[in-house]
Amino acid sequence: MTPLPSSMSTPKTAVLLCNLGTPDAPTPAALRRYLGEFLSDQRVVELPRFVWWPILHGIILRVRPAKSAKKYASIWMRDGDTSGSPLRVWTERQANALDAQLKASGQHVTVRYAMRYGSPSIAQQLDALQAEGVQRILILPAYPQYSATTTASVVDAVAHWTSKIRSLPELRFVNRYHDDTGYINALAARINTHWAQHGRPDGKISKLVLSFHGLPERNRTLGDPYYDECQTTARLLAEALRLTPDQYLVTFQSRFGAAKWLQPYTEPTVMALARSGVQRVDVACPGFTSDCIETLEEIDQEVREAFLTSGGQEFRYIPCLNDELAWISALERIAQKHLSGWL
């Protein structure tokens, strides 16, 4: 068969897996750069700049970097090729595994990863893909539940890049997959593996806590669908695990500032459980697809200590999906669905 002319060949296609971001090192200087970029995003902090800028630059970026650097240092991975921030390590592994799985299924797709804040940035990776001749790019955020603070911010970053590019590639975006069957089943498999070793919660003296990242309550009032999508994920996961309502709780973590955030808050909830006689909690974080500072330090260190010092006896953190095969397979199916017609 005569090959098609190059002008008629299938355009090069790529998937860009986008996660939130991470500092380059667990140092105050690196945290100052990272937090400065992160907290300057008006999708993240929706205050007028004349109000927020003096607080950010006059207080937060003077005080918080040193405190945050210590927290990052406590979870930083330092083992040969896995050296670095856990979020970066796991996201890179996910991208590599997804790339291999798509190619194994016969799809000629390049998969890269990028960070919304920090490096490699979305703009850097889009530049590199275009330099390689990629003409079609699927933007796949690592956020199963949609929020303007996360998913829409990724879209903003891509739009900012396109505003400076004369010859644009075709672009597609994945907005959400909070109710995707493969995603739910991967979560259930992760938790069932844990329970095979430690036993299921009985609902009386032991419970499963599903902790999602928090969001200001105001965002929900203004129409952000994140809260409802978290509840849907939790319900579907509970059904897959065959849990009764008394065996699990949905909570929200990582509150920042004095404003009211989505409730119930994770740490006060587990403290109240301990004081009420619950001896054991297992905590999973379904909204995080990679282990990171919020799961490894906030949950597995701070919340663990809060539960145990409040009278609890046993605290077990269930790791994120990371590079579990079931999750990579689910991620491949999500990508394939949105790549339909391009391949």
Describe the protein's topology.
Layout: E1 12-21, H1 28-38, H2 49-75, H3 86-104, E2 109-117, H4 122-131, E3 134-141, H5 151-162, E4 170-173, H6 181-198, E5 206-213, H7 217-221, H8 226-241, E6 248-253, H9 266-275, E7 280-284, H10 293-309, E8 314-317, H11 325-339
Parallel strand pairs: 1-2, 1-3, 3-4, 5-6, 5-7, 7-8
Helix pairs in contact: 1-2, 3-11, 6-8, 6-11, 9-10
- Percent helix: 40-55%
Strand content: 15-25%
Secondary-structure class: alpha/beta
CATH architectural label of the largest domain = 3-Layer(aba) Sandwich
Low-confidence stretches: 1-7
Tally of strands: 8
Shape, principal axes of CA atoms: globular
Mean pLDDT metric? 95
Largest sheet data: 4 strands, parallel
Radius of gyration, Cα only, in angstroms?
21 Å
Quote the distance from N terminus to C terminus. 20 Å
**Strand line-up across the major sheet:** 2-1-3-4
The CATH topology of the largest domain: Rossmann fold
Contiguous helical run count: 11
**What's the domain count?**
2
Could you give the order of the helices and strands? EHHHEHEHEHEHHEHEHEH
For the record, what CATH class of the largest domain applies? Alpha Beta
GO molecular function, one term: metal ion binding
Main location: cytoplasm
Protein name: Ferrochelatase
Subcellular location: Cytoplasm
